[in-house]
Structure formats: structure tokens, C-alpha cells
Amino acid sequence: MEPTLDPGPVIEFRDVYYALPNGRVLLDGLNLSVQRGETLVLLGRSGSGKTTTLKLINRLLSPTSGQVRVNGASTLERDVIRLRRSIGYVIQEVGLFPHYTVERNIGLVPRIGGWPPARIHSRVAELLQMVGLDPQMASRYPHQLSGGQRQRVGVARALAADPAILLMDEPFGALDAITRDQLQREFLSLQQRLNKSVVFVTHDLREALRLASRIALMEAGKLVKVLSPRDFLRSSDPLAAAYLRAFGEGLDAVANRGTS
């Protein structure tokens, strides 16, 4: 039986430790929460534990010790299939099925969930418009799309069953600067309308400042600080200061002004 909606954090990490079978520690005592409707950005270098954290939420990984809780219940107590269907997941490589049309790719989870074909068709058309694509593209295949178009389809697929939680793992990292800027703008617009609980992984400080409600700075499997974009810009933490120096001037102009 699935748990009822909990009024507390939508996602919570309680002393989570994760190690590989060879003993290598990827997360060391992580305590972190995600509030409903916020975009929490996990910022850090490669190997800091960002993607591991993301995979623990939808139980692609299970903690070595500690608890990951979604809507107040441990992920280990949830039916894993239902858990994953309730969470949208967007990755950098998109992961579209090449032999499926755009419509079939987007409608995959609703189809598995037993939605009638007419409802799926209507939902696909709605989502294509929502992510800035012509609904007529529904009959195309992934190889007929540009990189930015494929990424938009990936976002639409993650939103298809209207999940309350959205996980995004460097979704715009492989795109050119102009397309990346466009998709960041569209993400902000979508989030204002849909109010999802989003965990967004990036190593790009500018992207973090632009998209985040809060930024969770990670290093070597540990949480360093959780700060609003504005507080990050003023932070005296050595690692935060190193990021600010590395990314140069003009950062104040890209910080998400919707945060406190």
C-alpha cells in the first residue's frame, strides 16, 4: 500500500552513507531535504556524489546505511515500480528509444499505467506545446530531431504522467550555449506554472544560480552548504568562494530572483 502524502519535506536524506562493494565511499553521512515546489540544485565537481544522490531518490541505488524518504516513507518500504513511475527523470543523454516515435516515447509511462490511447494522444500534444515543440513532431523519430529537440522530448516524457517530483541530471550540459539558454528559460517558465519538486544536478555555477531555489554544494561525497542563490553570492565558505572566482564576474545578474 502506498503512503499518504506527508506534509513535511517531499524528499529527505537522513545520515545516508553509500559505498561501492570495493569499499569506496560515494556519499558520507548526507543529511538533506527537498521542500515541496522548490528546485534544489546539487552543485559540485565530478565525483562529488551528485548523481549518486539523485539515483538514491528513485531507488536506482539503495543506501548502504541511513534512510532516503519520499513523502515521509523510506524508499526501501515503497513498491519500487510505483515509486519510479511517480518520479520524472531527465538525463543528459536523453535516453529516447530510437525505434519509437516521439509520441510513443513520451507516452511510455502513461501507456504502462493503462491510459487509453485517446488520452495519451491528447497528453502528448499538450506536452509538446508545453516544451516548445510543434505537436506535428509526434510522428518523428529521435534521429530526425536536433539535440535541443531531443532534450525537450526528454523533458516532456518525464512530465507525461504528471509526477510531483522531477529529477534532472545535467539535462542541458551537452547542448550549445544558445540552446542551453533557451531550455533554461523554458524550464523556469514551466516550473512557475507546474510547481514541481525538482532536484537538478549541475557542475555549472551560472546554471545553479539561475535555476535554483536553493543550492546544495557538494564535495567528495559530503554536503558542504545549502544556500539560496543570493546567499551563495555572499558566502565566505572556501569552496563557494572558489566557485565564484572560477566563474568570474556578472554572476549577480543570473541569480534566481525568485528566492530569498
Keywords:
single chain; 260 residues; alpha/beta; six-stranded mixed beta sheet; four-stranded antiparallel beta sheet; 10 helices; globular
Q: What distance separates the N and C termini?
A: 38 Å
Largest β-sheet summary? 6 strands, mixed
Going across the biggest sheet, name each strand in turn.
Answer: 6-7-8-3-9-10
The helix-strand sequence is EEEHEEHEHHHHEHEHEEHH
Level of helix content?
25-40%
Structural class: alpha/beta
How would you describe the shape? Answer: globular
DSSP strand content:
15-25%
What is the rounded Rg? 18 Å
The average pLDDT is: 90
Strand runs, count: 10
List low-confidence stretches: none
Tally of alpha and pi helices: 10
Report on this model:
The chain has 260 residues and is of the alpha/beta class. The protein has a domain at 94-163. The protein contains ten helices and ten strands. It has helices at 50-57, 80-85, 102-106, 108-112, 117-130, 147-159, 177-194, 205-211, 229-234, 238-247, and strands spanning 11-19, 25-34, 39-43, 65-70, 73-74, 87-91, 165-169, 197-202, 214-219, 222-227. It is globular and about 55 Å long. It starts with 10 loop residues before the first strand and ends in a 13-residue tail after the last helix. The mean pLDDT is 90.
How do the strands and helices of this protein lay out in sequence?
Blueprint lengths: L10 E9 L5 E10 L4 E5 L6 H8 L7 E6 L2 E2 L5 H6 L1 E5 L10 H5 L1 H5 L4 H14 L16 H13 L5 E5 L7 H18 L2 E6 L2 H7 L2 E6 L2 E6 L1 H6 L3 H10 L13
Parallel strand pairs: 3-8, 3-9, 6-7, 7-8
Antiparallel strand pairs: 1-2, 1-4, 4-5, 9-10
Helix pairs in contact: 5-6
